[in-house]
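In keeping with the milestone schedule agreed at the kick-off meeting, the structural modelling team has produced records for the first pair of proteins. Each record is given below as a sequence line and a structure-token line. The laboratory manager (R.T.) confirmed that both were archived under the project's standard naming scheme.
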Amino acid sequence: MKFFGWKFLSSVVLSAALLVGCGGQETTKTQTSNTTVAGETVDERADWPKKVRFAVTGIDGMEELQRNYGAFRDIIQDLMGVEFEFFALSDRTIVTTAMEYDQVDMVLSGPSEYVLTKSAVPGAEPLAAIERDQYHTVFIVAEDSKYQTLEDLKGAKIAMKEAGSTSGHIGPSSILIDHGFNLDRDVNILLLGGASVEALKSGEVDAIGDGIRVYNKMVEEDGEGKWRLLHEGPPLPQDPFVASPKLPESFKAEFRRILFEYEEDILNAILASEDNKKYNKASIVEISDADYDLMRKTYSILGIDL
């Protein structure tokens, strides 16, 4: 299974990023905090941006971004004393190009998107991350399916989400590889985006590889006894807050401090939107770049150039 390389993808989406972003202006400096050192007044925030351009991966368009993260923006800019301006995305991969070309300063990113961004912008830094209460990949089959173990899926049709999705592509692919599957030879993977559930219900595919929330929603809609978890994977990496290398170190340190000190208030602001239920019972945690090495390994096996 081979895919287009990231560098090629970047060139394709650049023009789109230029269109959808409402940012693009240069950051300017402001003065908001002073200290005295050796009798001289020092402005600790002299190099801070006056306005921070903020994006969220997996959110398409300004209206959805405003609806789901408006309360978060309000509280974070009050705590930081800096205006946060939304940068709307039209695709999960565009954020990488946006940061590479200095169109966005801060991103709440999915794990897969972070790996792509870090590859294109080596100085990008994960400051902290949101750890979801339930965030792992599962394989779902019909209750009366003949498949009883993951190994039984050899020769089967498996629906996944779109290329690059953490829980709906990279996660299930990684699990299959770890269990000895050759993805080109042993299974027929169909990247169906949001149509994977309907494909399973109609019998077009034998199984779905996606996040546990997809299974929970199927049970919620169809009741118990209709669908079965064939396999559950380990927890996936957390969703990081990713800072552009152009942001000052003092700004990044303050943003990190605020995330932890006001964790409950910030998470409650995110959960003000019904669409952010995935963050129920979530917490803000420390993170490092090495936490995403498994994602990089899977990308490499899938033939996706970073």
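The second protein of the pair:
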Amino acid sequence: MNRRDFLVTGALAGAALVAERAQAQHAGHGAQPGDAAAPRERAPDATRIEQSDRSWVPAQRPDRTPVVPGGPIPAHMPNVGKLPWRIVGGVKVGHLVVEPFDHEFAPGLRARCWGYNRSTPGPLIEGVVGDRVRVFVTNRLPEPTTIHWHGLVLPNGMDGVSGLNQRPIPPGETYKYELPLRDAGTFMYHSHHDEMTQIALGCVGMFVVHPRRPIGPRVDNDFVLMTHEWRIDPGTGRPDPNEMLDFNVFTFNGKAFPSTEPMLVGVGERTRIRIGNLSPMTSHPIHLHGHHFRITGTDGGFIPEGAQWPETTTIVPVGAVRVIEFVSTEPGDWAIHCHMTHHVMMQMGHDISNMVGVDAGEVDPRVRRVIPEYMSMGTTGMGEMGTMDMPLPPNSIPMRGGPGPFSYIDMGGMMTIVKVRENARTADPAAWYQHPRGAVSERATAAELRDNGIDPDRDTRRTD
């Protein structure tokens, strides 16, 4: 049964059953610790990243030690580690192993992916202009592979296009790439053999080359995000590399919200976010709330200040990088997400039958004659469906969001949070923002409505 069949039949025949089971679980009946159907615990104040066992681990605090004396600070790639270097004869030497591994996108959804050093995206590769780096690549995939260093200016024989620049790396063998880091910028790396399969399964990563002295205003925070899209049918355990259009899992750095690690910055600080897109097919309009930013660079280099313009959303095409910079003025928890609405949903959210506005008053009693537990769902919208912890096909997280300080956040997928604090050096990188009294939108009182001439019951039909 595919997901459309599941929803067409399941939403009609099984919705009531799962809803009642969910209600019973919320009431504390039948749920066991660790049970995937058990209601989620509220995250403790000091931690925020949800794990597969439904525990929560601390978000990381980025390192701000300059990469070279007087130089820029290092980049931080949330949820992803860095490629370690060893110095051999003045050359930075690293080792990537490309292989299949089990990857968790968010609690409840895992898949057998391909990637580097058991990570997708692979570890952040970070260097400084003037470095010479040597990367050994060991192939543990069942087919040949290569690595292309996307955006780097380098000797032709190191460019990694299978058949054009080198022989493909056979399974079980290790090849060597030697790269002079000539230009500062934000680049990427990915397989360039059977790209349709290997990129779709996760063989991608980011590569940052710092200048020895900052270019433009010095930044206080430097983050890296990589977008990706996947097709993982409910109940299956492998992404489908043959998908061209209908993707159903969307990630920042291989994670779907609420498993995306937040980014902590300070009021008045200048923040850079480097956004790379190696999704198989789709561009992503990335929108930051509460800020104006400028696009300061691409994978082709830095953009002069006079050529920059203010934005709140930037489209990141497939195979491209957009670097944004902004200064935070307002403390709070600010969303950053893809503005394609289906990209902040998860499996099945975009295939569900349209029940919005349906009057189920006559339908439900009739269906209950056959299925006593039946109850129509989605007739008033779908924003709260993620709170029901409904029993669903294994390995699926439809319309999944996460807990928020006020209520359930009904966004998932390609979404994370920029946390702006008065003092980012001492703030808890995971705690929710504490708003000043009276600074949060609340229910208007009758007196406020009267004093402002607002009548909620007044006919709002257009009169022009």
